[in-house]
Design brief:
7 helices, elongated
Length: 128
């Protein structure tokens, strides 16, 4: 589970490393970083509006998104069959899991963006 203090400390450490880069490398870093960063509000909105896993696709987590989508669809389809209780259980389970992610959207995306920053810094260091 993500820890707010650890994620904040990691972000601060990464920002200090970026600030220590030469001006030209820092410029390249930010140019490459901008399109890769994710917005916690977009993530939360996709989660809130569509409990079907679209927020996972936003992060490029296709496998997890497909599993969520398939579980959601299976639960919805089962509502119209004699297995209506199974459908309700599936929908409740996916809702609980995704609501947990919704309430933690800020830290999930902050950690995600930290990982992106770390990878870019490693790439720049390898080229230097």
């Amino acid at each position: 589970m993500l820890n707010r203090q650890q994620v904040d400390a990691e972000e601060e450490r990464l920002r200090e490393l970026v600030a220590a880069l030469p001006a030209e490398q820092r410029k390249i870093f930010y140019q490459q970083l901008k399109p890769l960063l994710r917005d916690p509000d977009t993530y939360a909105t996709l989660n809130w509006c569509f409990l079907a896993g679209l927020h996972h696709f936003y992060l490029g987590l296709w496998g997890r998104g497909l599993v969520n989508l398939l579980v959601f669809i299976a639960g919805a389809v089962l509502l119209f069959t004699p297995l209506v209780l199974v459908g309700i259980v599936l929908l409740l389970l996916i809702s609980v899991v995704e609501l947990w992610a919704l309430f933690r959207a800020q830290i999930i995306i902050q950690d995600w963006n930290n990982k992106i920053m770390r990878r870019l810094l490693q790439r720049l260091a390898a080229k230097a």
